[in-house]
Amino acid sequence: MRSTSLLFSLCRCFQFLLYHLISHQRMRPCARWGRSGKRFLSTFLSLLTLCVLLLISSKFSPISERPPPAAIQDIKTFHKYSINCSAIYDMDPVEVGKSLVMRKQPVEDKDASLINLTSDCTFFMKARGYDDVCISEEERDYPLAYSLVVHKSAWMVERLIKSLYSPSNIYCIHYDKKSSAEFVSAMEGLSRCLPNVFIASKLESVYYASISRLNADLNCMSDLVKSQVKWKYLINMCGQDFPLKSNVELVSELKMLKGASMLETSKPTEYKMMRVQYHHELKDAHFEYLKIPMKTDQMKAPPPHGIEIFSGSAYFVLSREFVDHIHSSPVVKDFLAWSEDTYSPDEHFWATLARLPGVPGEIPRNHPDITDLMSRTRLVKWEYLEENIYPHCTGQHQRSVCIFGVGELRWLLDYGHWFANKFDPKVDPIIIQCLEETLEKKQKLFRSMASTTCH
C-alpha cells in the first residue's frame, strides 16, 4: 500500500512539473526569461527537489503492509466472548445464564482465517503472543514432546498448542489424510511459523477404532525419538482435548513421577477381551466413520511372547526411557503386528506395554487396576457413570461421552487431572475460553515466582 501511494504521488509530481513547463513555453514561446520566468524557474526547481526527495524516500524507506505494532494487539484472531470466567467458576447464576444464552449461537472460527494469519509468520507470532514468551529455568531444562492426532477445527488445534506452548517443547502434528485442504493448509501454516512444531513425516488415513489411529501416534513417536530436542516425557493429544494445567505446572508434576509413566491399565472385562480374541476386518460404514473394524467368526492366536492383555485408553504420558525401549524392542514390534486386526488396538496396546516385565517404569502385572479416574492423563465424563461417580454433564453427549459445558469448569480444574476430553466450540465455546484465561493466569503467576528467560 505504501509503495503504491508513493509511486502515484511521484507520477503526479512529474506530471504537474511537465504541464507547467509546457504551459509557460506556450505562453512565451520566443520571449526571453524575465522576472516572471525567474519566479517560474525558482518554483520549478523547488518542485523538482521535492520530487527527487520523494523518489529517494520511496527507494530507501522500509516498505511494509502491516499495521503499526499497537494495532496488532487489536487484530481479531478467533472470536472472544464477553464473559467473567471467575464468576463462572464460582457458579454465579447471572454469568452462567449469560453463557447459556451465548452458546446457543456460537461464532464459528473458519480454518481460512488461520491460513490468512499464518501467511505472515512474524505477524502471526506477534498477534498470538508467541514472540514474547517467558519460561522458567525449570521448563527450559525439562522439555516435553507432544503427539497431536487431529483432523478438523484448525483454530482448536492452534489454541491447544498455545495453551501448552513453551519454546523448549516440541510438537508433532499428525493430520488425517482425509482432512479438508483448508485444514491441511492451516496445519502447514502452524508448522511453518512455529519453529518447534512440525508435521509427521508419515501420515495415515485414520479410521475409528482401527490400527490407523494407533499408527498415527507411532508415526509421531518415531519422528520425536529422532529429534534433537532432549525431551523428558511424551504426551499424546487429540483435537477435542484441552489441558487443565499450565506448562510450568505440568513440568513440576511430571518431575515427581521420577521416570515412571502415567496411563490407565486394568484387567479387561469379558466384553473387551472379545476385541482381541477375534479377527476384525475394516469395512465400509454408512455413517460418520466411513469405515470401521467389524468382528468376524475367526478366532485369533494368543498374543506373542506370552503377553498378558490389559485394557486402558488411547491416552498416555510416557517417559523418554519407556519410549526409547519400546521403539527398539522386537517384542513390541511383534505385539503391534498381532494387534493390527483387533478392535481399537490403542485401548489395549499402551496399557499392556506398561505391564511388560523389564520395561522402564514397569507396572507389575499383579498391581491393582489403574482406572481413568486414578490415571491423571485424561478426565472423561461417561454418561452411564454420571450422578453415581461425577455430576451430570452440562454440555451434551456424544457416543456416551460428555462434551463439557461451563457447569464443569470448577469440577475440571479442581479434580487434579492434567488434561480433559471432550471440548467443542460448537457445543460450548465459553468453557474453552475460560480454561485458556485460567491457564494463562496460572502460567504468569508461577513464572513470576521463578527465574525466567524471555524469548
UniProtKB/TrEMBL annotation:
Pfam families, A to Z: Branch
Gene Ontology terms for molecular function: acetylglucosaminyltransferase activity
InterPro entries, alphabetized: Glyco_trans_14
Keyword list, A-Z: Glycoprotein, Glycosyltransferase, Membrane, Signal-anchor, Transferase, Transmembrane, Transmembrane helix
Pathway given in the UniProt record: Protein modification; protein glycosylation
Subcellular location: Golgi apparatus membrane
A single Gene Ontology CC term: Golgi membrane
Topology versus the membrane: Single-pass type II membrane protein
Record-stated family: Belongs to the glycosyltransferase 14 family.
Name the UniProt record assigns to this protein: Si:dkeyp-87d8.8
Species assigned in the record: Sphaeramia orbicularis (orbiculate cardinalfish)
Gene name for this UniProt entry: LOC115430661
